[in-house]
């Protein structure tokens, strides 16, 4: 039996999900090398190379700390290192991961003020400004850049400039937004920026990345962190090496990921994501899906959420794609479970993948009794990707 346990034929397993993502073979193989000791000269060389490359992806001059955890670990680390119990913080939330920040802050005994906007929209900056006027004693603002539950992007640049000349720390979950979107940590005045390996880095899950501004360090240095494993002070003390055993295999894979991204160039990688995202949006519209994020300029390059056309059971569609064709696309979270599909297009997804995904969606939709004009999403993809369609007389 293969991994799915249900397929009777050999199928390639494919994912169009916003983390984990597909992992290019070169990266998988880099992680499959023989183990090396984490306090060896060899490891030190690799870490040094990684540390040289990583800040360029955040457009920062600061060091990046690598945690052996999923993205949520980095969110928790940012909270447990930056605030004291009882501190007041502002969470700017427009979806599931914004709500996660609130949950984490609550666990650490912080007083949470929220500015939120409905799922599928991004938060209005004037409301953030108003909340700050009402609560000038906040110690931090926490927000998500690209909200993976809905595919809406928040204006973290504007949030950064709002708090730049204040004592308030701006903490950004750029876990899915880094690489796929423009992000300039130093220029935008962001204080703590979080990322993770299984998103734009095209890697397996397991590493999280934290960039910390000098302004944030001033606060962190004064605070008794409510964590030992994730203590940033401890990370700094051991830098460039890790304070505890690092994920050696994942670091080997990371080195390859950084090589690939460097060869491509950060702005090219961002443009690639934008292009694939636009094509996905056009393809879904052609099939009669309703894009969940209505305002085109805040649509994520990471994931596209869409509501199924009436009469189509989104959960059944996803189930059939998965069971019959080995393709994993995710559904909605929270109240949108069963009504929504979310196509992840972060990382190594390319044009050929897209044609395959949409081709098979047409097939399954037709099987489900939905009237689809054959090839309609292919045409939409071709148009969006710039090829256009030649019409013969
Ligand atoms: C993936 C993701 C996370 C973290 O999820 P983990 O499963 O802990 O890696 C957090 N925020 C956003 C926006 C994400 O896309």
General description of the model:
A 7-stranded mixed beta sheet has the order 2-10-9-8-5-3-4, sandwiched between helices. α3 packs across α4. The N and C termini lie far apart (51 Å). A hairpin with an 8-residue loop joins β13 and β14. With 393 residues, the protein is an alpha/beta fold. The protein folds into 2 domains: 3-20 and 265-385, Alpha-Beta Complex (Aspartate Aminotransferase, domain 1); 25-263, Type I PLP-dependent aspartate aminotransferase-like (Major domain) (Aspartate Aminotransferase, domain 2). The protein is built from 14 helices and 14 strands. The structure holds pyridoxal-5'-phosphate (PLP). Residues 18-19, 70-72, 97, 144, 148, 173, 175-176, 196, 205 line the site of pyridoxal-5'-phosphate. The modification N6-(pyridoxal phosphate)lysine is found at residue 199. Residues 21-333 form the Aminotransferase class V domain. Keywords: Aminotransferase, Pyridoxal phosphate, Transferase. Its cofactor is pyridoxal 5'-phosphate.
Q: Could you name the key traits of this structure?
A:
2 domains; globular; alpha/beta; 393 residues; binds pyridoxal-5'-phosphate
Précis, in short:
This protein is of the alpha/beta class. The protein folds into 2 domains: 3-20 and 265-385, Aspartate Aminotransferase, domain 1, CATH 3.90.1150.10; 25-263, Aspartate Aminotransferase, domain 2 (3-Layer(aba) Sandwich). Helix content is 41%, strand content 16%.
């Amino acid at each position: 039996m293969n991994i799915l346990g249900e397929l009777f034929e050999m199928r390639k397993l494919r994912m169009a999900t916003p983390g984990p993502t597909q992992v290019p073979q070169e990266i998988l193989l880099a992680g499959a090398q023989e183990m090396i000791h984490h306090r060896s000269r060899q490891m030190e060389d690799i870490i040094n190379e990684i540390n040289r490359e990583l800040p360029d992806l955040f457009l920062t001059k600061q060091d990046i700390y690598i945690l052996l955890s999923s993205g949520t670990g980095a969110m928790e680390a940012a909270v447990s290192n930056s605030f004291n119990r009882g501190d007041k913080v502002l969470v700017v939330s427009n979806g599931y991961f914004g709500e996660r920040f609130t949950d984490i802050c609550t666990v650490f005994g912080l007083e949470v003020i929220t500015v939120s906007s409905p799922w599928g929209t991004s938060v209005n900056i004037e409301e953030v400004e108003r909340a700050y006027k009402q609560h000038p004693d906040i110690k931090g603002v926490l927000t998500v850049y690209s909200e993976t539950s809905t595919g809406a992007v928040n204006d973290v640049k504007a949030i950064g400039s709002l708090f730049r000349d204040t004592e308030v720390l701006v903490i950004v979950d750029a876990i899915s937004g880094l690489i796929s979107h423009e992000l300039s940590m130093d220029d935008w005045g962001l204080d703590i920026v979080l990322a993770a390996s299984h998103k734009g880095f095209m890697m397996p899950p397991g590493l999280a990345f934290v960039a910390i501004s000098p302004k944030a360090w001033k606060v962190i240095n004064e605070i008794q962190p409510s964590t030992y494993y994730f203590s940033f002070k401890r990370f700094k003390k051991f830098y460039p090496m890790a304070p505890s055993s690092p994920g050696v295999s994942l670091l080997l894979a990371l080195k390859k990921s950084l090589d690939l991204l460097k060869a491509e160039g950060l702005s090219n990688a961002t443009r690639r994501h934008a292009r694939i995202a636009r094509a996905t949006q056009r393809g879904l519209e052609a099939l009669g899906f309703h894009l969940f994020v209505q305002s085109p300029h805040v649509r994520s390059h990471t994931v596209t959420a869409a509501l199924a056309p009436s009469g189509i059971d989104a959960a059944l569609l996803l189930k059939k794609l998965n069971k019959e064709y080995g393709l994993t696309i995710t559904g909605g979270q929270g109240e949108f479970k069963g009504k929504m599909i979310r196509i992840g297009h972060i990382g190594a997804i390319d044009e050929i993948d897209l044609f395959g995904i949409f081709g098979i969606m047409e097939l399954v939709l037709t099987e489900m009794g939905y009237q689809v004009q054959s090839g309609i999403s292919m045409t939409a993809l071709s148009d969006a990707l710039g090829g256009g369609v030649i019409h013969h007389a």
